[in-house]
Amino acid sequence: MTEHPPRPDSARFAERDQKAEIVDRLYEVALDPIRLEDLLEVWEERVTALRVGALDNAVPLDDPEIDAHVNRARVFLDRYEATRAEGGYRVMLDDIPRSAAFVSDGGPRVTACNRAAARAFGLAEGGPVAALPFDPEDVETLRGVIRKVASGRAEKVATLRIRSGVTGSPVILRVSALDEPGLALVLSTELFWPDDFSHTVQEAFGLTVAEVEIVRGITLGLPLKEIAEQRGRSIETVRTQARSILAKTETHSQSELVRVVLGLMDVALLPAVAPNMRGNAGAMEPLPFSSFRGPGGRSLDYIEFGDPKGTPLLYMHLDYGLIRWPAAAERQARSQGLRVVVLVRAGYGRSALLAKGVDHVQGCAEDYAALLDHLGIERAAVICLGADLRFALALSNLRPGLVSGILGCAAQLPLRTAAQYERMDKWQRFILANARYAPKVLPFLVQAGFSLARKLGKEKFFAQVNGGSPADMETFADPEVRAAVLEGSEICLGARTSAHEAFTRECISSERDWSGLIHAVKVPVRLLQGDQDPQTPVLTIRELMVDYPELTIEFLPRTGQLLFFKEWRQVLERVQALLPR
Fold this sequence. Notes:
By secondary structure, the chain is of the alpha/beta class. About 45% of the residues lie in helices and about 15% in strands. The strands form three sheets. An eight-stranded mixed sheet has the order 6-7-9-8-10-11-14-15, with helices on both faces.
């Protein structure tokens, strides 16, 4: 009997010149993401030979030398992102909403500060550093530390403990170097309590005005004795009120209370309206974000549109975060009596990432179930895009009876062979094939893609990635579709948002075998597929259809990945049969 050599657990590049060429391209992309397509061409030329046969026997690329260069290149890419024109320390300060923070070169003037520093310390951009509420000697010490850190003559991070001249309490200051030469960020433990936040706390927990003032004092770090003195009450009275506060907020200690309040403050201080979702040529109506506590206490956002009292319809937004519909489609949802609910998935927008090690599909399904529970929805149909089909299936299997039916648009199914990757257009193959064969390299590729999208602008980037589908390009040219795609995707890639880590996790989970979810489904599942889909061509769908008799599949002509956005009228017509009765 002939013995076959064992299948290797991983593949590596055999030739030194192959590695050298790829390494050169990696660093070129890290220094300028516009070179990403050059990396794509070289990478695909070198790795195609490693992708052969059935995926059950796929050998992942695991080359320690390439991995080491990828990790170094990511450092350069991170620096590129930090210094891009629309980034820098001003955006960084805006992203620190509740702790007083400012940027300084150690001179007599403040370079920039956030709102919290203006309120807590009385600082102003270009104003005197001497305005800090510390002893003059302490201010001079701080300035000296800033100069040393900013110039590289000290450790990149230094910590000082200074007593506030206003409250008498100690303030911890963390001084860290910025990428901008000669500047340092000063982040303090001094918190900012917004003027209107007391009302928010009172409404959220049903507290009295007196109890809110005690919560404010505890959050700002004051001991109960000092709170009692400020309020002219006995310490016993304040302790009794503190116990009442813990009961009402369902917390068990002052430290847990502070964590809950600060979490609420993070939500309250961020914009209440989805970014850039204002009236424009696409006639998009502004939609407010709402938040709730999901599994593990994680903060998750969601939006709703349509008829608030209508039939529940859960919409899943694809890995590009397409949370908005064309304006006419959103109006039609209202007129058809549909209550459309959209969860901002883990890692997108302000929704917290799932903990590392958590199964991504299962974790997202639990988040969707938690949202429907939060809204009191006992049964809903689902519209999902692309590989989001796996989340809809997992939700249906997780909570029998919660999902009445699933309608997938331009759905992606678990692939079986390397040839099915080769049929994809080059950009789709570049990301998804590497999610399957080179998951260690994928984070760099995705982050570089996001950087490229920022540099080109999302419209040009869309044209570059989806140019192989005339149907998608024609659909994107529609002003209402373009507005929905560009504005909805702000949760994925916006002026202050980059969901590249979540996008990476989604791609890796989509390329694992989730066929068991399809075979286990107990509700009707209908798929609408495009004949010009650059990611899942017709031939691939036809090959896979035979494996899944559970699915009803219909092809719509002259459609691609944006099938839902072009044919939303047909989608809303087909979903009627799947709605809960």
